[in-house]
Amino acid sequence: MLFMRRLQGVPKIEKIAAFEVIEPGILTTIQDAGRFGFSQFGVPPSGALDPFSFRVANLLANNQGNEACLETTLAGLKLKALNESVIAITGGNLLTTLNGEPLELWRTHLLIESDVIAFKKVRSGCRAYLSVSGGFIVPVVMGSRSTYLSGRFGGLEGRPLRKGDILYRLDSPSPLNRLGLRFPEEWIPIFEKEINIRMIPGPQDHHFTEEGFQTFCSSAYEVSPQCDRMGIRLNGPRIERRVDVGESIISEGFLSGAIQVPGDGKPIIILTELVTGGYTKIATIISTDLTKVAQLKPGDRVRFKPISIEEAHQLLKEQEDRLQGFGNPLN
Amino acid sequence: MGLYEKTLYLLMGDRGLLLEFGDEISHEVNERVRRMALAIEAEAIEGIIETVLTYGSLLIIYNPLTLPIDSLKKKLQEIEKELQETPFPEAKLTRIPAVYGGAYGPDLEGVAKHCGISTEEVIRLHCSKPYFIYMIGFMPGYPYMGELPEALIMPRLKTPRLSVPKGSVAIAQKQTGIYSMESPGGWQIIGRTPVELFSPEGKPPALLQMGDLVQFYPISEEEFKEWQNRKN
Question: Is B112 helix (H, G, I), strand (E, B) or coil?
Answer without folding.
Answer: helix
